[in-house]
Amino acid sequence: MPFEIVRNDITNMCVDAIVNSANPRPVVGLGTDSSIHEKAGPELLAARQKIGPIPMGQAAITPAFRLHAKYVIHAVGPVWDGGSYGEEKLLRSCYDQSLKLALEHGCKSIAFPLIATNNYGFPKDKALQIAVAAFSEFLLEHEMLIYLVVFDRSAYRLSEKLFHSIASYIDDHYVQSWEETTYGVEKESRRYSTRRRRDRDLFRKNSVCEDAAPCAPMAMPIEAKPKPASLTDLLSQADAGFTETLLKLIDKTGKKDSEIYKKANLSKQHFSKIRNNPDYKPTKQTAIALALALELDLEQTKDLIGRAGYALSNSSKFDLIIRYFIEQKNYNVVEINIALYEFDQSLLGT
Fold first, then answer.
1. pLDDT one-digit tens code per residue, 57-96
2. Distance CA 77, CA 116 (A)
3. Would the N or C end of the chain have less CB density within 10 A of its end CB?
């Protein structure tokens, strides 16, 4: 899975590059900066001092020394001052420059904190949106495992507006699902019983002759029972499977496989398994991720994942979050994974 959110101490990550939310001067700062220097040892500060000051919005790379990584990328985020001084642009530059350095040094994996959100006061919801945008655009063009490392749930947050919109959507549809489950069958059963009594009374009325004597029952034609279909017949009538349907949909878009599997947060190796196996059974998260990458509407999504044996239910938070984003025409799998993580759900692309 090219993008993943993990709850961990970033100094424990085993990756090619760890990004440090660094001080612009070659000194050890607070928070993430302090933790990384402590774990890496004094050699890291010496390497950082050789670089000298780093301008805000820029990044520099050093060896990682005692960390479980090859490199530390020192990214200097902006201090939040109300948002009128180019802070968002500078923060985006931190992510872009860090990813560029990792690419230039042959890194296959990289771990990011949420840069500039602690001591520098950058609002966490805005910082998260900037990180998501940077990761999404980068992964459309390049192959790399990107980890967003959070120490605890309070370390980041969706925008309050988006969080409450999703929560309200879940609540509304949970209520609807509960009412249908609790009352729907019972109401339908009452309607059916009433209709049966009405039909029975009508039949009795029409079955009485003018002299009030019962009429002879009408002879009903005996219909021949249809011959049961053989297993071979049933199998020959089966719909196209998941892989066949998926590949036809990709061909219909005119896009390359790589465009689809990258948007779906899948690796090249994972997608190759799907393409080369007509009977491949994806996980539900993979099937939905591919539907999102194809930007299918709700009914098309249900059809595609149904060919893998899955459905969307109003009694599942995961399913409702997926429905919410499809109805909003938001197909960004990285952003959707952030929302799924916020609600303690499995991530897409697994």
1. 999 999 999 999 999 999 999 999 888 889 999 999 999 9
2. 5
3. C
Active-site hit among 9, 33, 96, 319: 33
Q: Does residue 56 contact residue 94 with C-beta atoms inside 8 Å? A: no
Structural contact between residues 70 and 16, judged by C-beta atoms closer than 8 angstroms = yes
Q: Tell me whether residue 100 is exposed, middle or buried, using C-beta atoms within 10 angstroms of its C-beta: 0 to 12, 13 to 18, 19 or more.
A: middle
**Domains, the chain, ranges and CATH?**
3-157 (3.40.220.10), 159-170+241-350 (no CATH)
Q: Which residue bears the tokens 């050890």?
A: 28
d(CA 115, CA 76): 8
Q: How many CA atoms lie within 13 A of 44 on its CB side?
A: 27
Distance separating alpha carbons of residues 144 and 73, to the nearest angstrom? 15
- Predicted TM-score (pTM) above 0.90: no
Give dist(CA 148, CA 146) in Å, integer.
Answer: 7
Token pair in block for residue 293: 């990458």
d(CA 94, CA 97): 5
Q: What is the DSSP string of 16-70?
A: SEEEEE--SSSS--STHHHHHHHHH-HHHHHHHHHH----TT-EEEEE-TTSSSS
Residue in the block written with tokens 């991720």: 289
- Report residue 191's pLDDT band, with 50, 70 and 90 as the boundaries: very low
CB 308 within 8 A of CB 279: no
The model's pLDDT over 195-230, given as tens digits with 9 standing for 90+, comes to 555 555 554 555 444 444 555 555 555 566 666 655
Count helices and strands (H / E) in the chain.
14, 6
Angle, in degrees to the nearest 10, between helices 317-327 and 333-342:
140
Please say if 33 is a catalytic residue. Answer: yes
Cβ contact 74:62 at 8 Å: yes
